[in-house]
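Form P-L/3: holo structure prediction, ligand nicotinamide-adenine-dinucleotide.
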Amino acid sequence: MASNPFSSAMTQLERAAKIINLEPYILDILKRPVRILETGIPVKMDDGSTKIFQAYRVQYNDARGPFKGGIRFHPDADLDEVKALAFWMAIKCAVVNVPFGGGKGGITVEPKSLSLRELQRLSRGWVRAFARYLGPKKDVPAPDVYTNPTVMGWMADEFGQVVGEWQPAAFTGKPIALGGSQGRTEATGQGGFLVVEALVKKLNLNKEKTTVAVQGFGNVGFYVAKKLHDAGYSVIAVSDSKGGILDKRNHGMDPENVMKSKKEKGLIDGCYCAGTVCDCENYQKISNAELLEMEVDILIPAALENVITLENAGRVKAKAIVEMANGPTTPEADEIFKQKNIVVVPDVLANAGGVTVSYFEWVQNNIGEAWKREEVLDKLKPIMENSFEEVWGVSIEKKINLRTAAYALALQRIAEAIKARGL
Ligand code: NAD
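OUTPUT (holo model):
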């Protein structure tokens, strides 16, 4: 049976709450969202028919600041998934200490089956449905799986029309032309790269000899793979929803070329092409399941949740896992990794570069500035490095894994805010 992501999230919460003796009333507050918004969005389809799409916004906790979190368009998006993702956002914002709470949105839809016009109508419909609960000081959405700057541009525009004024700080991950931040698109990957660099130092690995496999080749998977490749790591396998490729020579592939091939042919598997030169001998097709179980130093899940479970965790051979997806590892799999001494850098730390630069975007919009890419990436670096050090320190001090350490740190910060409000 597939794991329920919200049950996993609550198991993780309880494990950490116990370690830090979290007050029972605070644990109770954090076991449920502040608000669940749910509706059907009617969309006029190109063929003249009307379809209703199930849509959600879960506002989990806002003790530390406005709710913050992406919107996912996916056929499997459901309330439990959105609740789990919203909870993880609250933890994540506290781990990197940005002044936001946690929220998440979703629409149950196969976005690839919609035309661009239908997708725009659906995106605008989501905003109209929830607009009264959104805004720069209330709840600030961003992109997630199968949403992107284009979608955020439509949404920010719709929000401005509904409330009667342009409020760029209401959405992050927007196109640059609408007040998006330089560096936001690559931010999650950049943050993951910085985390890998810090981890490699702790594990005394030599990066020139460090092999990496990345599951998921969307925004996050592509950028983390590219940055690792550029820094000298060997990215020996990548995959997307249709399958993956493995470099049989352990050389490492150039993610830019894989992306070109994906854009040209719609597939990354099969042959590997650098420009027009295709190398079909050295690259072998692999499945997503095979990628997760490869002999590799660092495994990076960067697709969806619940891909490493009780069923396959025992076969994972990586030395370390850096979770760029949200919720890829179930609590049962975590237990196995503890026994096998496989280090797991949790999602709430590893992929927090995205929300950190979203925070920078919100700040820039609020004060009417536009920072340069270098400035943004320079500001991101110490936040990721210090957060990694803090989590690592708690993990050593309390003899707990990095996930529980990250939660412990975050829960203390959230609890402090709840108490400071005098609730
Ligand atoms: P995306 O839509 O750009 O890419 C998703 C990728 O996953 C695609 O390459 C898709 O083909 C692949 N995929 C889907 N199903 C798969 C499967 N069953 N097996 C293997 N690959 C599969 O999404 P994204 O923004 O890159 O998000 C990926 C993960 O990172 C999600 O868990 C998301 O919540 C998380 N995340 C994203 C951001 C961000 O800034 N975009 C920030 C933090 C966390």
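COMMENT: The mean pLDDT is 94.
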